[in-house]
Predict the 3D structure of the following.
Amino acid sequence: MIDRRSFILASVAAMLPLGASAVWHLRQPVPRTFDYGPAKLDIYAPDDATGMPVVFFAHGGTWQFGKRSQVNAKPAFLLANGFCFVSIDYRMLPEAGVATQAGDVEKAYAYIRANIAQHGGDPKRIVGMGHSAGCHLIALSGMRGGLPDVAALLLDDTRAYDLAALARNGGMVRAYARVFSDPSQWAALSPASYVDGRKHPPTFIAYSRAPGRGEASKTFAERLRATGTEVTLFDGSAYTHMSINRDFGEDGDALTAAALAFLKSTVG
């Protein structure tokens, strides 16, 4: 005899479209949590995983807020599509400045490279992914060589690729003005500063309709392409700054489909 809970779950499953996001709605994966030094990270991987590509994620929150558990449908979707998923915490302002935060990202990445094989991941096929402030930190770390041998970068919606250009264009306001208050640090904290003619890992750049995102992303993409780097630019003007992150992994989401194609083509 089927119990009431099983009946309800079966009914819901019948109404959902086929696809990975149905897994998210019925069962949220449970991560294993580890201390990598400055903070903690969560590893999502099947018990029987072996040699799987890895998506390494840094959350947003204006460099001041956020936590590693804010991942929405990402873990279930990526696990269902053959990836391990890692979500990290890093120290927040005002405790830690942006340079320290980027260092935290790099320490977390080093920990994953050294340990992910024990959880079924392939340390040679790690993709760095971030949203908003996390996007900036992944871009900064990746461009300056702080994520050695990273297979690809998936950058989701920031204006902070070139801080001096942001200031010239009137964008150094509100959170940006508070976080990047010292112009003498702008070059060191700008991912664009490190696009110096070297070819970089394949990079997927998405932008929302939030002010300035499209312009900053297109300029950064052009700069990367000039080095011979493979760049995929995703027009996410149908999204808000929050929904371009929140909807990732949901059935029918356009960004998810484009990002998955990019992931499959780079780390397979």
Remarks:
- Residues 1-26 have pLDDT under 50 and may be disordered.
- The radius of gyration is 18 Å.
